[in-house]
Amino acid sequence: LQLTAMEVCSLVSGERLAFLDADHVEGKSARAVKQSLAVQLGIPRFRQRLHVEDGSRQILDDEVFADAPGKVLLVLLAFAEPDGEADSLMLAACRSNNFMTLEELLQHPRDPD
Questions:
Q1: Strand extents, DSSP E, 11-101
Q2: What are phi and psi of 41, to 5 degrees?
Q3: Which residues of 5-36 are buried (b: 16+ CB within 10 A; e: fewer)?
Q4: Contact status, residue 6 vs residue 22, Cβ threshold 8 Å
Q5: Considering the entire predicted model, what is its pTM?
Q6: pLDDT one-digit tens code per residue, 31-66
Q7: Main-chain phi, psi angles of 95, to 5 degrees
Q8: Which SS3 state, helix, strand or coil, does residue 6 take?
Q9: Coil, strand, or helix at residue 92?
């Protein structure tokens, strides 16, 4: 059986949030899948956490989907509380093109406003 799409449902409510065609999933990293979901849902990838269908394990950003699983669960995170120190670190990382530090800081979803 060849799956043609992956269903994305809320881990909390079970509500179907999106479908992704297999070509947007197969051979792609979880980070790339989150970027596709960001376009569909209007939620930045940094606020998304993907989990396997039974919810027992988070799918890490660097994991690659060999094929399209029938279903994954999505948790949408709220923005982190404002933090002046983290804001300063983020600005410094931007100014010095330190992408690894910036990626790490963005894993704690920051309100861009």
A1: 16-21, 48-51, 58-59, 71-76
A2: -95, -15
A3: bbbbbeeeeeeebbebebebbeebebbbbbeb
A4: yes
A5: 0.82
A6: 999 999 999 999 999 999 999 999 999 999 999 998
A7: -65, -35
A8: strand
A9: helix
